[in-house]
Amino acid sequence: MTTESPIKTALAQLRRAVEQLELSENDWNTLSTPRRILEVAVPLRRDDGKVEMYKGYRVQYSTTRGPSKGGVRFHQDIDLDETVALAMLMTWKCALTHLPYGGAKGGVAVNAQTLSLAENERLTRRYTSEILPIIGPERDIPAPDVGTDERNMAWMMDTYSVNAGFSVPGVVTGKPIVLGGSLGRTTATGDGVALSTIEALKAKGINPQGATVAIQGFGKVGYWTAVALEGMGLKIVAVSDVVGGVTGFKSIADIFEFSKTAGTVVGAPGTTSMTNEEILHLDVDVLIPAALADSITGATAGGIKAKIVVEGANAPTTPEGDAILASNGVLVVPDILANSGGVIVSYFEWVQDKQNYFWSADEVKENLNSILMKAIVEVSTTASSKNITWREAALMLGVSRVAEAHRLRGLYP
Ligand code: NAD
């Protein structure tokens, strides 16, 4: 799916925001440069005794507004450029949602599906140990992303804690509840994508009840988004994963049950299959890319019939794709707003770990909705008042707060 460089996309978006905010060349230089990059070699002893080497990364793009924060991705295609781009997006996302964090991202260039459970654990622990000097609850707090989940976070937390000599739950978020995880974290990103979808439908004057939705990517984000939207009365007409897409299933629970055993949604009884490109072009009200970067490009955007695109994935739209969607009147809810529910509830988890005091599921949900709604209103009103897209408005808000923080802190020495 990755056909264009995510760093090119991220820098183009930043350049536009810097111009719209009329920031200086000094601001551009500061904002366009990642603060700290660590590349590590991660050796893995496979179950058969063979030793393999994998490349790992941790990028702390910004620490100006607080410790850096961002996911850990296990995927064979990741590289340094993509990791920098995703860490940059995290920086604007945290500023947009007023979270006291900078932005980070990391990962290992490995296909997690080829690892046994024991290999996955060894790789996770060794990666954690390699990046250990630069992470910590006050420095940089990893979380799950593509190819990782709460199991990986438990191993990361344990590896860090064993080295510290005491339990440090706040070093990662997205942990299992019994290790200091937060209620509502598992569903948070999907809940946020769903709330963004409802607000975008209202902004377009479309009744959410019965509105039709296609979702590309049926992992943690795609699945929980589908569950939330179906629960709110929308109709999920198609979903897809890396193998392909399907339409014609009865419910999300049905297609999820099938995919749990089959390993893919494709081939479920009674469904019709389609490619990952075809799912983009279905005649639906809402399209939700929730897989990897660069799925909506100059080549694929023109065929999109949805009136609204809600970016569950990070950087799913290239600048060329974005321009086509804008000229076709498609409302795009940008990634840094639409999928921010994950980092918002990660923030709650970190706060709860710091205080050793845990919230109810209702408190989590209420606080998530209030922070996200505030950001949605700020973005939509900025977009209308300046006659710009939601993406431009979201980036202007996020980037301006980081630039202001830089100015207020000053340049040392
Ligand atoms: P995941 O690993 O749980 O799921 C990824 C899904 O995408 C799987 O269904 C996989 O089969 C599918 N996929 C992979 N390659 C594909 C391809 N080429 N075409 C179509 N589908 C493909 O990952 P996730 O956590 O759901 O993350 C998905 C996206 O959301 C990523 O861009 C991630 O950065 C972003 N995101 C995740 C979170 C989070 O809390 N997990 C938060 C914010 C943003």
How would you describe the overall organization of this protein?
The protein has helices spanning 6-20, 25-31, 80-96, 117-131, 150-164, 185-203, 220-231, 252-262, 276-280, 319-327, 335-338, 341-355, 361-386, 390-409, and strands at residues 36-45, 51-62, 68-74, 103-108, 140-144, 212-216, 235-240, 245-247, 272-274, 286-289, 308-310, 331-333. Helix 4 (117-131) packs across helix 5, helix 6 packs across helix 12 and helix 13 (361-386) crosses helix 14 (390-409). Among the domains are: 34-171, Leucine Dehydrogenase, chain A, domain 1 (Rossmann fold, 3-Layer(aba) Sandwich), CATH 3.40.50.10860; 188-338, Rossmann fold. The protein has a 7-stranded mixed sheet with strand order 9-8-7-6-10-11-12, with helices on both faces. Strands 1-2-4-3-5 form a 5-stranded mixed sheet. The chain is an alpha/beta fold and 413 residues long. 46% of the residues lie in helices and 16% in strands. The protein is built from 14 helices and 12 strands. Nicotinamide-adenine-dinucleotide binds next to helix 7.
Enumerate how many helices there are, as a single number.
Answer: 14
User: Ligands in the structure?
Assistant: nicotinamide-adenine-dinucleotide
The largest sheet, given as strand count, sense and whether it forms a barrel, is: 7 strands, mixed
Shape designation: globular
What is the CATH level 1 assignment of the domain at 188-338? Alpha Beta
Q: Please name the fourth-level CATH homologous superfamily of the domain at 188-338.
A: NAD(P)-binding Rossmann-like Domain
